[in-house]
């Protein structure tokens, strides 16, 4: 199977989420998408570039509090390239919700690139951003 063009997407046959064409496992539903020994052109291990985790709790003594979870992505010039409402709901004390947001990156190879890709930490811009935890 030839390597997918970097950034090309497809629809997960299980959950219908938009995913990267190179995915072996759907990041939304965790179903396996490729099986067998011939896995050329599929992903190698991810490098976790960003992870944030937090918990929210409804204030005690109040009524229900509504919430929405929105994820927005911006490019290096500050332009929004994507925005998604991930979930909406309501909380009553003592209920709480825990949220984890991660950004994982995968090295790619195409016919134009050498078979041994440059380390991901050298490819990605923005290493000076606060909170960047890429490995060197």
Describe the structure.
The protein has 136 residues and is an all-beta fold. It is 3% helix and 36% strand. The chain has one helix at 120-123, and strands at 9-11, 18-20, 47-57, 65-74, 80-91, 96-105. It has a two-stranded antiparallel sheet with strand order 1-2. The protein has a two-stranded antiparallel ribbon with strand order 3-6. A hairpin with a 5-residue loop joins strand 4 (65-74) and strand 5 (80-91). It is elongated and about 55 Å long.
Secondary-structure map:
Elements: E1 9-11, E2 18-20, E3 47-57, E4 65-74, E5 80-91, E6 96-105, H1 120-123
Antiparallel strand pairs: 1-2, 3-6, 4-5
Number of strands: 6
Reading the helices and strands in chain order gives EEEEEEH
Low-pLDDT runs of 5+ residues are 37-42, 111-118, 120-124, 126-136
- Termini distance? 30 Å
Write out the strand line-up for the largest beta sheet, numbering strands in chain order.
1-2
